[in-house]
Structures are given as C-alpha cells and as structure tokens.
Amino acid sequence: MKKIFLLSLAAALAFSLNARAQVFDGLALGVGGGSDGLSFEIATPLGDHFQLRAGYGLSLGLIKSNYSIGASYGGKTTYCPLSFRFAESDGRLLFNIYPGLGKFHFTVGAYLGSANFIKGTLSNLPADASTSGISYGGKTIFPVNNALDMYVRTGNGKFAVKPYLGIGFGRPVSDDKTVTFSVDLGCMYQGKASIWLSGKDNAEIDVSNEKDFQGSVGQWTKYLQFMPVLNFHLYVNLF
C-alpha cells in the first residue's frame, strides 16, 4: 500500500510540474463532512489535470459505543464500563488527478496527525486501584478518579502518516462556477492497531496482548488497518 501511494504521489508531482497550463491560477475554500469527520479545505489547480487540496478534519465523536469489560484485579474479575468514540482529528494533503477534462478524478495523498484513532474511558475501577495501581506487562499505572483513558492507536508512534487512495467526482476549482460540489470514496491505510491505557501523569501501558482486552476491543481492531472513507465537500471559488 505504501509503495503504491509513493509511486502515485511521485507521478502526480511529476505530471503537475510538466503541465502546460498555468498553475495556481485559482483558489477555492471548502467545507465538508463524512466518515472522516467535519473538514475544511483549500484547493488550487496544478494545470488542467491536477488539483491540490490541503485541509484539516475534526472528529465530532458522533459514533459512540459502550461495553462492559472484565478486568482481573486482586485475584478476582471486576466488570467495568468502557465507553469509546472515534477521536481522529488530522491534517490532510491530497492530489486530485483528472484523466480527462471532466470531473471524474483519482485521489492520492495522506492524512497526517495523531495516531490515536479511538478514545475511550474505563471507569468504575475498584477504589483501592487508585493507591495500588493497575499492572500489565510489568508496568503499573494509577487511575484518576477511579478511571483510565483508553486509546486505540494506529501505527508505531503517537504521530501517524496515513496514505490515502480513492476516486471521486467534482472539481473544487472551476473556471465557470463560483460554487462547486465534490464527492470522494477511498481507503486510508492506518497500519496495525494497538490498545493503550493512560493514567495519572499521562503514564501509558500497551495492553494489546492482554486477554482482558483481546475479547472485547481487540477482536475488531484488526479491521482498522484499512479504513474506508466517504465524504462530500462544497467549495466556494475565490478567484
């Protein structure tokens, strides 16, 4: 996936630099929404067959889920409520590639931002957990108000670059229209997901391989490597 992304991005840059039409001769501001949250973009043409889009997306946390997770503590199993929501907010740099002079396009680019894809709260922990802590894998963290933050994190660090490939219909910057509409459908590659707990002083523990989390959360994190994206944007052409 990463090789395809890099080759496509290199091709877009090479063709745009060689385009005969004047580049950066227009600018549009856009707002949109979709499975990747509420987003704001600016767009400019790079010749007749390419348009550059840059923006920022905000996760609104509209999709939420609740579980009850069994945590082994003090020789017994305690069931604690776990609530989580999509928490991704990131920048994005995208190239629309138009094979012809119409509105159909391919899109290649990347989402850039926090690797924390989902944020949750594990609450109602045993009262004595605040003094003795919660231990996994030889590490101990301490809850705050008998609760721990939980993150489903994609990639290997706290910052992630997520390649994107897709198709769409629409030209953000138009020669003859002030307001334009665009729709995009594609897939974002996020990498292998891991599950982290965060407590007092932002101390963190990777609990991806712990049986308490594998059954309730880990069973579907494997599907997060390839995240489908569907969004719609409305653009206003400034010049």
CATH architecture: Beta Barrel
Strands, count: 16
Mean pLDDT: 80
CATH topology: Porin
Largest sheet: 8 strands, antiparallel, barrel
Q: Helix fraction?
A: 10-25%
Number of domains: 1
Looking at the structure, what is the overall shape? elongated
- State which percent range the strand residues make up: over 45%
User: What CATH first level would be assigned?
Assistant: Mainly Beta
Q: What is the H-and-E element order?
A: HEEEEEEEEHEEEEEEEHHE
State Rg.
Answer: 22 Å
Note down, in words, how this protein is organized.
The strands form 3 sheets. The protein has an 8-stranded antiparallel beta barrel. Helices cover about 10% and strands about 55% of the residues. The protein has one domain: Porin (Beta Barrel), CATH 2.40.160. It is elongated, with a radius of gyration of 22 Å. It is mainly β.
Name its key features:
239 residues, mainly beta, Porin, 8-stranded antiparallel β-barrel, 6-stranded antiparallel beta sheet, 4 helices, elongated
